[in-house]
DNA sequence: AGTGTTAGTATCAAAGTGATACGAACAATA
DNA sequence: TATTGTTCGTATCACTTTGATACTAACACT
């Protein structure tokens, strides 16, 4: 895809996709949220080829969703930690998951519970201002004019 | 990617990604939500090669996010409409957009307003049960055991 | 008859992906 | 000291996907 970046494209979705618009990147972010940090953990968890993994980790690091940290000096070893931007990707993951749960829900599914209440988490998207569920109210789109 | 489908994989995110885990599909869904229905509208809006577009529309149709409808008999013409599953993808789009707005927000951005209140929509993900923002409370993950 | 519109298909070079083998830099064990 | 193991990759190369471009089918319109 022509990754026509940042300030050109007025669509925030396009911009996000140029950063993490492929399945591997999203799965890496998922695993990072699950606590994985190391090359081999990611590789084994996803069954991804090491070449792919190297490239995806590098991109996510360049784009500021992960950061590399040296955790051992002597065999020089790095691990990958979520940055704030990476952590803020969690709502996206949950909404993707919510869709999958609803429309591809056959068989056994991983579940997420609120640790405090013990209830299963049901992620929905709402407008923080009005409190209304996204998609339930009419909206108006304003596209900025070029230049 | 090895699109290891449905009932095998317990992760709802993986399952969603095997359906719409590439940038073109997500952009098509975005445009479909914006009201586009026809081949040439999509093609011009995204600058996608017709071969790609044909394939992606076919996949999204097979997977049940779009449906083909004949809108003209005599030059036989079809258009693509969102199904319920496709419409339910909107929260995903909004959360992806919200991330882009926050972390790739330079320059002019498309905006969405609540038609009733006139306020700009600020999409956030919450747990419908507790009302807490996703990511603000500790959670417990339950992975089903195999077989 | 000629031009325009819509929804594609055909072709093919270029780029991306995936599987596998291998390498570097050590630690631990025999 | 030699061997094996661990971790984080790189090298190679066959295979697949993509993207650009040209073209076709089936009409309508002038």
Question: What does this entry look like structurally?
Answer:
Chains A, B: It holds the Pfam family HxlR. Chains A, B: GO terms for molecular function: DNA binding. Chains A, B: Residues 11-108 form the HTH hxlR-type domain. Chains A, B: Keywords: DNA-binding, Transcription, Transcription regulation. Chains A, B: This is Transcriptional regulator. With 147 residues, chain A is of the alpha+beta class. The first copy, chain A, has a domain at 12-89: Winged helix-like DNA-binding domain superfamily/Winged helix DNA-binding domain (Arc Repressor Mutant, subunit A, Orthogonal Bundle). Chain A is 40% helix and 18% strand. Chain A is built from six helices and five strands. A two-stranded antiparallel ribbon of chain A has the order 1-2. The two termini of chain A are 24 Å apart. The mean pLDDT of chain A is 94. At the A-B interface, helix 1, helix 2, helix 6, strand 3 and strand 4 of A face helix 1, helix 2, helix 6, strand 3 and strand 4 of B. Strand 3 of chain A pairs antiparallel with strand 5 of chain B, so a sheet runs across the interface.
């Amino acid at each position: 895809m022509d990754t026509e970046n940042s300030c050109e494209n007025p669509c925030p979705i396009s911009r996000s996709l140029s950063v993490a618009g492929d399945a591997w990147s999203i799965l890496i972010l998922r695993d990072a949220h699950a606590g994985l940090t190391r090359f081999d953990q990611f590789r084994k968890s996803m069954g991804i080829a090491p070449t792919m993994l190297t490239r995806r980790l590098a991109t996510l690091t360049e784009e500021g969703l992960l950061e590399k940290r040296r955790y051992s000096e002597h065999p020089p070893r790095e691990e990958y930690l979520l940055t704030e931007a990476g952590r803020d990707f969690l709502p996206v993951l949950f909404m993707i998951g919510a869709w999958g749960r609803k429309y591809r829900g056959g068989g056994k599914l991983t579940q997420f519970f609120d640790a405090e209440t013990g209830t299963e988490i049901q992620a929905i998207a709402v407008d923080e201002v009005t409190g209304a569920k996204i998609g339930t109210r009419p909206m108006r789109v304003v596209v900025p004019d070029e230049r």
